[in-house]
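Thread title: Can someone regenerate the structure for this chain?

I was given the following input by a collaborator and told the matching structure tokens would be attached. They weren't. Posting the sequence so someone can regenerate them.
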Amino acid sequence: MKIRKMQKGFTLIEMSIVLVIVGLIIGGILAGEDILENSKRISIVSQLQKYKSAYESFKEKYYSPPGDMSDAESAWGASKTNNGDGDGLITSSGSEDYLAWQHLALAGFINGYYSGALTAITNVNIGVDIPEAPYTKTGYRMIRDEAKILFKTNSVQFGRYRSGSDMDNGALTPKQALNIDEKIDDRNPSEGQLITISGYDIHHTRCVIAGDAGDEDDTYAVSIKTRDCILIYYLDQTQQ
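Best answer:
Regenerated them for you:
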């Protein structure tokens, strides 16, 4: 009597089923990553709008921008905060760019508690000195940087941590920045309430492609896949 040898391996049908399952798993992972990525961008939009609203409410109540308020110690006590110089600009002088978050929190316009200064001597402590953002080592700085011409008003800067810096490393790819811009502004990286610039030591063309007609014709360099871009969200109206 002949004894059949046990067949080894998968049949074509079994292999097809395995491939379908693997494809579904990979597709599910990729879909999950897309959902997570989109939620981060939506969170940035929401946070920028929240901080703008808090800034406007603070100015309406105290007749001064947060951080720049010259009588903050009278309002909350010298043991809790420091005064700004009252010139209407949130600058790095006197740590106004860090006092801004502390003043907003003390006034109840944002949640949390902020140090009002650099707690690590030369390095910013995200979540302690400034609010944390969704991407790794990213956060928000409130500033009117007169050394940089694009900071036309008091602004919220979204960037990534760099040792010894003011959050000036690129935090987003141009495509991510465009996605945020079209949700909150006009899709133009160089005009409107939200503008985009390159991070520290990065050529500007890695974020923005200059048009032939000036700023109004600029576009995002969406073919660039690295996180080279910083966002600047104007808190006051600008003259374009």
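The radius of gyration is 24 Å.
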